[in-house]
Write the C-alpha cells for this entry.
Amino acid sequence: MKKEAELKIRKAKKEDIAQIEEIYREGVVDEVKTQFPKKTKKNILKDFDKWKKEHKKSYKKDIKSLSERFIVALIEKEIVGFANAKIQSYDKTQGEINRIYLKRNWRGKKISKALLKDLLMWLKSRKVDSVAAGMFIKNKKSRDLHKSFGFKNTAIRMQKKFKK
Ligand SMILES: CC(C)(COP(=O)(O)OP(=O)(O)OC[C@H]1O[C@@H](n2cnc3c(N)ncnc32)[C@H](O)[C@@H]1OP(=O)(O)O)[C@@H](O)C(=O)NCCC(=O)NCCS
C-alpha cells in the first residue's frame, strides 16, 4: 500500500511567490463565489488581476517582515497551500490571520488546520493576547475552520452597492 504523503510546513521564500499567487488566484474565485454566487469567474479574475503588481510587492514585504509569519504547505515538494498572519503595528498585543488558501484538489484534508495551528502558535509565542480573522459570512468552510480553533463572532461588516 502507498505510504500517505507527508505534509511539510515551512516559511515562504521569494522563489515561491509565483506558485503562491496561482493558489491565491484560484482560491479567491471560490472564496468570492461563496458570498456572490452569481459573479462570474471572468469578472472575479478581472478584478483580481488588476492588483497583480501590488500582490507581488505585498508578498515580498510580508515574507521579510519580522511582525509577520508567512508559511507554505508542501506535499512531496509541491506547494499545496499558504497562509500568513501578522502582529498589528498599532497594537503588538493583537494578531490577525490574513490569508489561508489551499489548492482545490488539496482541500478537505486538514491541511488548513495545520497551517492555522502553526500561525496561532507563532502568534502565541510572540505574546499576542488575541487574534482576529475576517471572512465572508457565507464562507462556511472558513468560518467552521476558525470556530474549530475557538474563534468567536465579534463583528459584522456591511456593504451597500450603488445603482449604476
Ligand atoms: C477554507 C479553506 C482554507 C479550508 O481548507 P481545507 O484544507 O479544505 O480545510 P480542512 O480540511 O483543514 O478542514 C478544516 C476545517 O474547515 C472546516 N471545513 C472544511 N471543509 C468543510 C466543508 N465542506 N463544510 C464545512 N466546513 C468545512 C471544518 O471545520 C474542518 O474541520 P473538521 O474537518 O475537523 O470539521 C479552503 O477550503 C480554501 O482554500 N478555500 C478557498 C479560499 C478561502 O476561502 N480561504 C479562506 C479565506 S478567509
Strands lie at 7-11, 68-75, 78-87, 94-102, 130-133. The domain at 7-147 is CATH 3.40.630.30 (Aminopeptidase).
